[in-house]
Fold each of these.
Amino acid sequence: MGNPGSGSGAWRSCIRLAAISAPGIHGAVSTQVRRQGGWRWLTALLISCLVLMVAGWRLATPTDRADEQLVGLADASAATPNVPTPSASRAAGATQSRAETTQPRAESEEPGQPKMLAIPRLDLKMPITAVTVDDKGAMAIPARPTEIGWYVHGPRPGSAGGSAVLGGHVDSREYGVGPLAGLQQLRRGDEIIIKTNTGTERYRVSTVRLISKQDLDPREVFKRDGEPLLRILTCGGTYRRSGGYQANVVVTARPA
């Protein structure tokens, strides 16, 4: 990117040249300064072009760190597995036909494990990976921004109560920009489809919010009771080299 000292010196010499380049009694000296200043102008121009090229390249490079935390869990108890073991009858239910899976599900019946996320408005389809927590106590998410994680210690999509949480990277320095970059384009009423190993769960977008990571309440996001909701999270807002993205995009959807 060049030496800042030599660059600023070149600009100072140009300023001095402008001040003394008018014809005077020291014509020979002025001519010599003009020639030296011309080379300095050319050097400064080349350095400026190089700086602009490097800056443009950095701006075009995805900046999300692969290990950046999406959201931390405020309470260690939230990371405690609480997923019932499927019974033999439920396992047998996985072989039901598509027509049978469209029938209303009893409250006591556990929904299938989520496998695929689809959002028609964004022409988005992403495989869903089961995740837990990382060594920093945050929700672990897939390294590739083309995949999205489902928090296994919370409700499944289609559960009778609580928030089913999906989360993924918006981009990655290694893999580039992912489909979740368009998440903020969603509008109230947009359809979200979750394909499971036993059927399909459908939701409608209720809210799309950009929330500072300092203001995001994990207990609210990862609720295990109350109204059945689907929450989809990714990083957003301002990016800082020292702390990554400063906010989360949070989409909340209700059963259709």
Note: The chain is about 25% helix and 25% strand.
Amino acid sequence: MDDQILPQPPMDLAHIFRDAPMGFCIFDLEFCYVFVNEALAAINNVPVDAHYHQTIYQVVPEVAVRVDKQLRHVVETGESFVSGHFVSDRSAFHGEARVFQHTFSAIRDDAGNISGVSCFVQDITDKHHAETELAQARERMERRTKKYTEALRKSEKKIRTITDSLPVLITYMNLDCCFEYANKTAEAWYGKPLDKIVGMRVSDLMGEPAFDRLEPHIDRAISGERSLFEDTVTYPDGKTRNVQISYLPDFSENGSVRG
């Protein structure tokens, strides 16, 4: 370009942004620098005066390659554009890679025509690192959860295999006296498939007369005591059985009974 004097931004604009902590500049329509503040000069590791009469392609070519489409998009459409993350390891940062985000906006003259592009450059290194660490932590958690879930599934399958092979009735009920688990024997004794048994209340499955006989023993287990007794119970399959029943409280980590 000819060494012509480029139009300068209004003095109040220069005053506002000259000492701003965020990088700021203005390009003309050929993407030459019209105004550059000290913060952007530090980011580019190029003196302020060395920007003028130069295009972004000449001053920071590695940045220009990344933002060329965004700049042209703003000039062609007038729409603002926020770029993605851009990593720079220019020597101004003593070899430390920093992460920046660019925000481009159209500048219009009094007639409403686009006459240039403004650019804010924000150092988002700390935010980017925090987001990266959070994403990595989330990924580790997902891997652990998947591993734990798979181990739990295998454990439950093993328990199911063992309990289904036993010729005894094994169930687990919560504090509302609803079945949460039952082994294969339960299907024969209760006359229902397991997926129907699980979720039912004992009183609904056994009937009120049978539940009334069992309730005091269930309440004892819920209070934290083991209840072992013998009784004659008529089950939903129509058979009356002389059974020995054991209700064992299931304690949570804080010592309260949970089932």
Note: The longest helix spans residues 125-164.
Amino acid sequence: MTPEILHLDGLDQNAVWADWIRTIRQAFIDSPQVRYADSEQTWWRDLVGPCCSPPPSLVAFQCARSIMVTAQGFYQCQPLRVESIFIASLAAGGKIVPHADSEAVIGGKWAPNHTANRTYSAVLYLNSEFEGGELDFPGLKRRFQPRRGTLIAWPADHRFVHQVLPVKGGVRISMPVWFEPERSENRGF
């Protein structure tokens, strides 16, 4: 049986989550330190990872830790740690092609990719001022219209191939977070 997708709406109605979302948007959305990904419509701001430890924003990390605890409770899984946090923006025309977060098709079969350590993925949406940009899980026939305060989490393997459909207008801003198992050799976050 395939595990469910965790889907929570309205987190921005909670004062703590609303403050986190507001602070993250103010701190990172207009940052000049972005790196471009697959197209001119997409930029990513790396908040956590081997290149920038400790995280530049305790607020983003606190938010990611809360997402982690929520995912652990929902999936009843082994303890996790935050592997990476990004701020992602997709402008009109921007999209993300179908993919799995810990596996890739190699030689016609699913195999671990360069981020095989990831066991769960999540995304928190930081705004609602856009059209399109749905998070789509084509193999599961599940599609989510993200809005500010929406949290979606899922296992990172090939059962949860997902894509972001083209943004039709505005700018879609989110905070993707990836988790890996808590082990003695990767303690820290």
Note: The helical segments are 15-28, 58-75.
